[in-house]
Amino acid sequence: MPLRTHSTRGSWRTSRTRKALAATAAGSLAVGMILMAGPALAADGPFDIDGTVPDAGTTEIADPFGSVKELGPLNSSSTKIGVIHNDAVPTLGETNPNAQVDLRRAWLDTEREGDKDWLYFAWERDKNTGSGFIAYEFMQDPAPAECAYETSTPAQLIAGCNPWENRRAGDFLILWDQQGGSLDRYLRIWSGTAPNLTLGSPIPLDDTVSEVAYSDDGFRGEAAVNLTDTIFGGSTACLSFANTIPSTVTGNSDTADYKDTILATTPPISNCESTTVTTPKTGAGAGIPAGGLSIGTGVVSVKDSAVVSLTGGTATPAGSVAFHLCKVDSPDLCDTGGTSVGSTNLSGAAYPATVSSPTAYVTSAGRYCWRAEFSGDAANGIPGSSDASATECFVVNPVDATLATTAGADVLLGNAVTDSAELDGTASQPADPVINLDGTAGDPAGGTITFTLYGPDDCETVAFTSDPVDVSGDGDYDSPEFTPTTPGEYHWVAVYSGNLPNTVGLTHNTGCTDVDEDVVVNTVPSTLSSAQKWVPNDSVTVSAGAGGDMAGTVSFALYATADCTGSAVYSTTAAVAGASPQTVSTSNTTPVLASGSFSWKVSYDSTNLAQEDIGATCHETSVLTITNGGDISSD
What we know:
The chain is mainly beta. The protein is built from two helices and 48 strands. The chain is rod-shaped and about 185 Å long.
């Protein structure tokens, strides 16, 4: 089913068909207008040729009018209808047509009714009186490159543009003779070999294949023509007409002059329609699951598969399909721009032809959409087509990393505890650009791991939280050391931040249920073992009733017996000097560790002749009993 188009001086859009019967036609034309063969159902086909101009949804082509200079053919012998294609530039000049032949606007459309395709054209003049011809010329080849109407200045068009230069055999002209309100219309077809072309004799278009009507006020008119029967009848070859020029002319002869022309880029009409239907694929050529693809390690390969079909003619597949891939958010599509992935030539004996794109590599999770553009086959009159529909879209999902952690060994209170995390399954970061053709990956996954220690003896009290530990891809990462001050059972919890868009973060051991993340801070029992020590010492006081100061030496001897027998275990002397009485003591430092009897033998040797000596006597005894208590434990 043909597409409608709308223009403001060459800017086109598509719209719906007007009659429900046209909905039975197969296919739709992505670029241009489609003309197919078959018997007519009505003199005006799917259009309402009743003088109400224009029919809804038709394509408008505006033109300057009134006291305004506009471009048109120069008036000379080389710019007549029959020979203007051979005119040497400058063909155009600034003109100001009379109001009765000055077009304000024109309209174009094609639609299908049953198996017939119809052309609609309409016009509006600046004045509703006068005589002349309305002419619509359809040329197979596009206008010359020098006729870039939308981007060139008038001076550039005058210097280089002859809009009729690319005429060739098979081009046609429809003329409407409006003298005296006539409804006569004619078809003329070019033959020969360019530049020696011949414009065929006028062929009347009767009410079985066309219909025309004026508006009530006479400013406008409209016509419908069955091009299936009049132009393409019976041919299976694809024909396309890329350059349409609405105009007013002085007559139906080869030597008629152009009075006003509407120069604009128009979409082609054709008796063939190409359709392009595409399906996203994995890099291996498999279908992409409804849930999308995984970004994997950070690079995933994808392709697009395009099926190009032809309706309305036969031809050997030719041309190419160009592929673009866009990263877009829903509901956007890849209808423009994107990364060019390259093109693939059509091959095979007949349509439909299936081609696959070169491989593209995606390095970022997200939503992607393909666009496939069939170039058409100008040599065979096949228009191009494209597919950038929602079925061309797919999703690349991020990966969920894994985090396995193991706490360090149990410790005694006062020692540090640690945790170790093994990070796996990360995807590299997006490359720049995120879509490439060589599989280049981005940097390893980033993010951080934070270690938190809970306890003692619960999973609510935070004992320690580490500074974030930087991550660079898969690997082992250790926590900083922490020294608890309270004994008990502790639990490590590790949190990986993730590195979106490609890697999702996660928390390990949230509920403190992983025994590998438990660490015990212990204390050890104490043991007390006592042993008594006794150090025996003695003191002696000596005195004399007269004879002056005391002078001499006291001798001490300690025996480990009760009667001063055996060898002394300790002995010493102490000098005595000064007024009576004098006390002197021992300075024994050797302890006694066992029970037993002890005795001291003491004597005084006086050096004051007036005072007598005291002989050695076993003067003191003692008995020592030591009972130690053994070990005492904290358990």
